[in-house]
Design goal:
By secondary structure, this protein is an alpha/beta fold. Helix content is 26%, strand content 18%. It has helices spanning 15-23, 67-82, 98-108, 152-161, 189-197, 243-257, 274-286, 297-300, 308-318, 341-352, 358-371, 409-423; strands spanning 4-8, 41-47, 50-56, 85-91, 114-119, 141-143, 177-183, 215-221, 224-230, 261-267, 289-295, 327-329, 384-391, 396-401, 431-436. The strands form three sheets. A six-stranded mixed sheet has the order 2-3-1-4-5-6, with helices on both faces. Strands 8-9-7-10-11-12 form a six-stranded mixed sheet, with helices on both faces. Strand 8 and strand 9 form a beta hairpin. It starts with a strand and ends in an 89-residue tail after the last strand.
Length: 525
């Protein structure tokens, strides 16, 4: 297992700034307002050859004034108990305050190795301000500037020197499934996360907007590793007038890009709203797996006019773009239905990562055309000639036609519906791209419309990623046939799209350029 390093201190001393500096990315929200960070925020980090788990915490208040700050203190205490090394962060500009002394005393009682990092020593002349912090009684005091990166070498040298000498090697499980929990404020996302994790990892409060950071939690279930990401509640843009909330909403939306599956949590009492429709539409647009979780089902049962039939009707009317997404009725408070969540995530992920062979797809296309002929464009038939899958996550298919502009939206929906009937694809959006086949004698072009020239012995490094293959002079048309082994199987987690060149002269359904006589599509028999 990795050593755990926790950053603790009173509010607004720069814990999240130091957390981001050590990670090398802006993962935690940073703002001048105290109390922005509320949950424990875990992230793997590395310094030179040493790997460890870094934990950001909320402000440690020795005497919290309300329930929210009491929950934040409990989160910090838990982080200290889990840590192998504690970084006690202080503010050089304000000096030692009574809350600092009380915090130091509480952390000293844990018996964990503690390093006092005196922050906001932005210039060498400020290092003298760290001298008074030796009065706290710890054996290591390091002046640093988290904002400018000063003193981090000395700080991490002291931290690494206090790592446990022997550690069990961490077993890495391939195929981690990343799940984002998304929804409007106060629909029960953090309660659901705590229910899945089996502990109070996330602060829960009836005040909307309690969660600010997009916090990761890792768990394992039946040999499968899951990374759950809790996010801030997302309100309508017109209602977001707070700078911190704007940062939190931006972090929540960016979380969609790095996850495979998104759980959109809805309030069962209110039903789907316009904001829920926007969120699900955003997930579909980004091409992520999607599942709908109707929370607070225990309260719905007490309402006479709310039941499954009513909610299904509301889903079909208000979320027509997400009809493929499975719906699960749960209660995060009582635990009803929560045991099915990870199994549902695995099913959606499997659909999200499905690849179908080219031979099966062309047989499928022939049956679809025989069952329902494509509409014509200005009395000219649209010939669907060849179909292949060009990527996964989400499943994306390419169909070569004689005129891509003639493909109507209704026939595109027909093909997608038939794909779902034949192969499932529950919970994942489908994409179909339509391209025109190269005519005989026409120069080959890549997806950018640039001609593909024969290989002349020199490699253009800038275009290597745009040209998956190059056909040289003298190659026969039979050599152009693409099979499944030629398709790119690249993970598309970060939203990057593969660039696939135009395919060659494969035999096609109804292609009058392949021979003098037209070839009719095979019948469904």
């Amino acid at each position: 297992m990795l050593p755990v390093v926790a950053i603790v201190g009173r509010p607004n001393v720069g814990k999240s700034t130091l957390f981001n500096r050590l990670l090398g990315e802006k993962k935690a929200l940073v703002h001048d307002r105290p109390g922005v960070t509320r949950d424990r925020n875990y992230s793997p980090a590395a310094w030179l050859e040493h790997e460890f788990m870094l934990v950001d915490t909320g402000g440690f208040e020795p005497e919290p004034g309300d329930a929210l700050f009491a929950s934040m203190r409990a989160q910090s205490e838990t982080a200290v108990q889990e840590a192998d090394v504690v970084i006690l962060l202080m503010d050089a500009q304000s000096g030692i305050t009574p809350p600092d002394e009380a915090t130091a005393q509480l952390i000293r009682m844990s018996g964990k190795p503690v390093i006092v990092a005196v922050n906001k020593c932005d210039e060498p002349m400020h290092d003298d301000l760290a001298g008074e912090f030796w009065a706290l009684g710890f054996d290591e005091v390091v002046p640093i500037s988290a904002e400018h990166g000063r003193g981090l070498w000395e700080l991490m040298t002291a931290v690494i020197a206090r790592f446990p000498k022997e550690r069990e090697p961490e077993v890495e499980i391939e195929g981690e499934i990343r799940i984002a929990v998304l929804g409007r404020p106060n629909v029960g996302k953090s309660t659901l996360m705590n229910r899945l994790l089996g502990e109070d990892r996330h602060v829960v409060h009836d005040m909307p907007g309690t969660t600010m950071d997009a916090t990761d939690s890792v768990m394992e279930y039946e040999g499968q590793r899951y990374r759950l990401v809790d996010t801030a509640g997302i309100r309508r843009r017109a209602r977001v007038d707070d700078a911190v909330e704007q940062l939190a909403v931006g972090a929540a939306l960016r979380t969609i890009e790095r996850c495979h599956v998104v759980f959109v949590v809805l309030d069962g009492v209110e039903g789907p709203t316009e904001q829920d429709a926007r969120l699900t539409g955003l997930v579909v647009e980004r091409g992520r797996g999607l599942a709908m979780l109707v929370n607070k089902w225990d309260a719905v049962r007490e309402t006479e006019d709310r039941n499954v039939a009513v909610l299904e009707d509301e889903f079909s009317r208000k979320l027509p773009h997400a009809t493929f997404a499975p719906v699960l009725y749960i209660s995060a408070l009582t635990g009803k239905g929560c045991t099915k969540l990870l199994d549902l995530a695995k099913q959606v992920y499997d659909s999200f990562n499905t690849r179908i062979s080219t031979a099966k797809l062309n047989d499928f296309l022939a049956v679809c055309i025989a069952g329902h002929s494509p509409p014509q464009l200005h009395h000219h038939p649209i010939k669907y000639q060849y179909m292949t899958q060009v990527r996964v996550r989400p499943p994306t298919f390419c169909i070569f036609v004689n005129n891509p502009e003639g493909v109507v939206e209704a026939y595109d929906r027909y093909l997608k519906n038939r794909l779902r009937e034949e192969y499932g694809f529950g919970g994942t959006p489908l994409r179909i791209e339509y391209r025109r086949r190269r005519r005989i004698g026409e120069a080959r072009t890549d997806v950018m419309g640039q001609p593909i020239v024969p290989y002349d012995g020199e490699i253009d490094a800038e275009r290597m990623d745009l040209v998956p293959y190059v056909v040289g002079e003298g190659d026969d048309a039979d050599d152009d046939v693409i099979d499944d082994t030629d398709l790119d199987d690249t993970d598309q987690d970060e939203g990057e799209l593969d660039d696939v060149a135009e395919f060659g002269d494969e035999p096609a359904f109804g292609d009058d350029s392949a021979s003098d006589d037209p070839v009719d599509p095979p019948s469904s028999e």
